[in-house]
């Protein structure tokens, strides 16, 4: 059993990551049963689940070992759910694992309601939370309404609502343990989506709004003439002009000319406008957008 200070420390962690609110709404409980969850790696090492640590999808490809203290005559249920991972419903979860009617603390003797499925956070969605919730059962429960045929690779069939599940079963189960980790995209998921889930890999990009520009005026005050006009020009056109300037200085058949030691010591045409002379100096010193010239 955990000390009171450990309860509060872990509860603050769960509250910080919004675990209770996203899974149980306004409900709250103290996780009194510590869970020891470890993912075995190909090299024989074990990767533990703490409280929000990062585990890559390829590191969690196989179901973990779960150990907790339980009386041999007791019954338990273990649910692994992802409140961030449903691809089509905003307020739904994706259940990754569900073991019910676990005798004592022997997970292997439990009834597999939903087979294990590794995390699959799509590219561009950032880290997703995968939460293990351990329930203590008062009796053997018929979970047939939640049962899915293995391997259950149709993601729509893994739709889950923890709050709804607990409301339905609250007379027979009591939440007792909680742990979670976070996972974000890695390169193993491309093959996982294509070959395991048999679907096109979803990729999300942030749609950045266009930067705000003040409407142009005829006589801008305290603004450099050329820089002011560049703000209202097409960036592609500016890049094209710079590329053409660079191409004029490059000859594939001639060696590159040595740079002058003191570029701004070269004479200038005083008849040129001041803004043109400033641009010439920037180009000579390779400042700003002329750094690649």
Structural features, described:
The protein is built from seven helices and ten strands. By secondary structure, it is of the alpha+beta class. It folds into two domains: 4-196, Alpha-Beta Complex (Phosphatidylethanolamine-binding Protein), CATH 3.90.280; 225-290, no CATH class.
Descriptive keywords:
293 residues; alpha+beta; Phosphatidylethanolamine-binding Protein; seven-stranded mixed beta sheet; three-stranded antiparallel beta sheet; elongated; mitochondrion; ribosomal protein; coiled coil; PEBP_euk; PEBP
CATH topological fold name of the largest domain? Phosphatidylethanolamine-binding Protein
Beta strand count: 10
Element-level helix/strand string: HHEEEEEEEEEHEHHHH
Domain count, please report it: 2
What is the approximate shape? elongated
State the name of the first-level CATH class of the largest domain: Alpha Beta
Mean pLDDT: 88
Biggest beta sheet summary:
7 strands, mixed
Radius of gyration: 30 Å
Contiguous runs where pLDDT drops below 50 for at least 5 residues: none
Keywords: Coiled coil, Mitochondrion, Ribonucleoprotein, Ribosomal protein, Transit peptide
Main location: mitochondrion
Family: Belongs to the phosphatidylethanolamine-binding protein family. Mitochondrion-specific ribosomal protein mL38 subfamily.
InterPro entries: PEBP (IPR008914), PEBP-like_sf (IPR036610), PEBP_euk (IPR035810)
């Amino acid at each position: 059993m955990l000390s009171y200070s450990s309860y509060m420390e872990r509860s603050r962690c769960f509250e910080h990551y919004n675990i209770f609110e996203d899974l149980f709404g306004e409900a709250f409980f103290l996780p009194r049963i510590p869970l020891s969850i470890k993912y075995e790696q190909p090299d024989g090492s074990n990767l533990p689940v703490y409280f929000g640590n990062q585990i890559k999808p390829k590191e969690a490809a196989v179901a973990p070992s779960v150990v907790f203290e339980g009386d041999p005559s007791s019954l338990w249920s273990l649910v692994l759910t992802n409140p961030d991972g449903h691809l089509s419903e905003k307020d739904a979860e994706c259940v990754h694992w569900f073991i019910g009617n676990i005798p004592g603390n022997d997970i292997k003797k439990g009834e597999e309601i939903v087979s294990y499925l590794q995390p699959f956070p799509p590219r561009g969605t950032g880290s997703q939370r995968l939460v293990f919730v351990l329930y203590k059962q008062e009796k053997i429960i018929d979970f047939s309404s939640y049962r899915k045929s293995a391997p259950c690779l149709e993601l729509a069939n893994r739709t889950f609502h923890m709050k709804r599940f607990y409301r339905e079963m609250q007379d027979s189960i009591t939440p007792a343990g909680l742990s979670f980790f976070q996972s974000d995209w890695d390169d193993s998921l491309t093959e996982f989506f294509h070959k395991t889930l048999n679907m096109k890999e979803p990729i999300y990009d942030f749609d950045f709004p266009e930067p705000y520009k003040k409407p142009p005026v005829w006589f801008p005050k305290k603004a450099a003439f050329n820089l002011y006009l560049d703000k209202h020009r097409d960036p592609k056109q500016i890049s094209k002009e710079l590329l053409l300037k660079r191409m004029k200085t490059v000859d594939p058949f001639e060696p590159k000319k040595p740079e002058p030691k003191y570029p701004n010591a070269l004479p200038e045409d005083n008849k040129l406008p001041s803004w043109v002379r400033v641009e010439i100096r920037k180009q000579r010193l390779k400042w700003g957008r002329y750094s690649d010239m």
